[in-house]
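Duplicate of #3305? Posting structure anyway:
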């Protein structure tokens, strides 16, 4: 196999069309869709929040994704190097630096949650939840995350897996797994949906998802919807710039951006549909927070023919989905060290993984022994380490990164380069070009700025 070690031209790339979509979708689809989307939807009250989220995806997310692909494929570089190459001697590369910071904070707590899913695979195999009611299942989750060593052990295992895949290179590492496993995850979620909506008492959950209550939509809710749109689509931090640089010159970037966005959004909505009917059927608190998926679904699996097997498969696939995402986060850091600092890929992977894992341990401890350590975060009061890393990256760094990325494509990038890249040097018709330009020049940046300022009470 011609992998990156021997006769590959300068940069490793994706082998097939489906491989690219699978890898970019694999990055986008992860804990964000199945763990985070349902629980923040629960916190901010359901349907109205979902509508705001969908608007953010459509109006801001899609153009930013296409912007990232365009920058990366044009420059053929990592997130920081891309800005330096396309706009030398300007401060734009700071956008790449912010992404670097975001990658660190996100992957640190992401590894912790992914570690919980590994622990849940074992719990599922051992049938730990058998015969437990909803309160007992909540207790099992609380017991896990508040311990000192067990969650850290699984976090370390997960981070080692992530490092292993990134060391394998792009074609042999990321692409191979994503192609088969993502479609399987989709099938299991659909099976869960069918079970969830047919549970006795499911109606209240369906109403929660489809009947908007606009009174709940505050500035903070809107900023969280926007932040989550970036988080879920893997935007604002250079992941899609880095992946864009691996996409072949013949692919239609606009089409890929649209397909990835649709796949990601569909999985999130289907995950929400599997969760809330069950939340109401079992009397779980919709605003239960980060434990929502881990508490709700074991209840559902118990009431399902074949639930034992499905539960094992579900948490395994969730861990894999988390892995294809974590790999894309680590890749941002590694590609930078490797290409800009001339460090070997191997040393880059090891250094970055160790540093991120240590920060993640602090996040893990903040769920238990360090839960009284609170750090202020403007706009969100004082929060624990885990929440701080999550809220700071998703609600500050990613939207700001997205703001600069869209401004860069809208105002700084040479319009001929832009046309050349999205149209594959004129080979493709790009009827959306004018709309894309307006979106990157005005709509996305102004939208992000308004949401941001609104949360800080600028508009009263
Ligand atoms: N999108 C992934 C998820 O939903 C997480 C992720 C991967 C990410 N790469 C990213 C988030 C880059 C922000 C930026 O789980």
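Output from current build:
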């Amino acid at each position: 196999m011609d992998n990156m070690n021997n006769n590959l031209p300068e940069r490793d790339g994706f082998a097939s069309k489906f491989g690219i979509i699978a890898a970019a979708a694999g990055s986008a689809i992860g804990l964000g869709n199945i763990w985070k989307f349902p629980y923040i939807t629960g916190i901010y009250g359901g349907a109205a929040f979902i509508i705001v989220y969908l608007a953010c995806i459509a109006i801001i997310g899609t153009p930013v994704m296409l912007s990232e692909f365009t920058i990366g494929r044009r420059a053929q570089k990592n997130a920081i190097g891309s800005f330096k190459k396309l706009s030398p001697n300007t401060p734009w590369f700071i956008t790449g630096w912010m992404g670097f910071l975001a990658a660190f904070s996100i992957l640190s707590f992401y590894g912790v949650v992914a570690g919980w899913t590994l622990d849940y695979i074992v719990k599922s195999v051992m049938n730990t939840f058998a015969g437990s009611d909803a309160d007992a299942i909540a207790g099992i989750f609380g017991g896990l995350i508040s311990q000192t060593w067990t969650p850290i052990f699984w976090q370390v295992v997960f981070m080692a897996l992530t490092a292993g895949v990134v060391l394998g290179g792009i074609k042999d590492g990321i692409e191979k797994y994503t192609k088969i496993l993502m479609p399987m995850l989709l099938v299991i979620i659909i099976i869960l949906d069918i079970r969830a909506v047919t549970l006795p008492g499911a109606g209240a959950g369906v109403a929660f998802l489809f009947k908007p209550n606009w009174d709940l939509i505050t500035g903070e809710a809107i900023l969280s919807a926007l932040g989550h749109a970036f988080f879920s689509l893997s935007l604002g931090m250079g992941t899609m710039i880095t992946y864009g640089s691996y996409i072949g010159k013949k692919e239609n970037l606009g089409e890929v951006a649209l397909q990835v966005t649709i796949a990601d959004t569909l999985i999130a909505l289907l995950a929400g549909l599997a969760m809330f009917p069950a939340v109401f059927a079992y009397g779980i608190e919709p605003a239960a927070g980060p434990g929502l998926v881990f508490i709700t679904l074991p209840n559902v699996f118990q009431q399902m023919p074949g639930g034992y097997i499905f539960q094992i498969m579900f948490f395994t696939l969730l861990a894999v989905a988390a892995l294809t995402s974590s790999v894309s986060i680590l890749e941002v850091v590694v590609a930078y060290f490797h290409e800009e600092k001339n460090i070997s890929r191997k040393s880059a992977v090891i250094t970055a993984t160790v540093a991120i894992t240590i920060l993640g341990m602090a996040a893990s401890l903040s769920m238990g022994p360090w839960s009284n350590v609170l750090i202020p975060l403007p706009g969100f009061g004082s929060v624990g380490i885990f929440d701080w890393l999550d809220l700071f990256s998703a609600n500050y760094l990613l939207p700001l990164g997205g703001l600069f990325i869209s401004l860069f494509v809208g105002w700084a990038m040479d319009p001929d380069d832009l046309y050349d890249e999205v149209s594959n040097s004129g080979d493709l018709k790009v009827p959306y070009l004018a709309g894309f330009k307006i979106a990157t020049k005005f709509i996305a940046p102004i939208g992000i700025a308004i949401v941001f300022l609104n949360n800080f009470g600028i508009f009263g």
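Confirmed duplicate; merging threads. Residues 307-340 form the longest helix (34 residues). Residues 1-9 have pLDDT under 50 and may be disordered.
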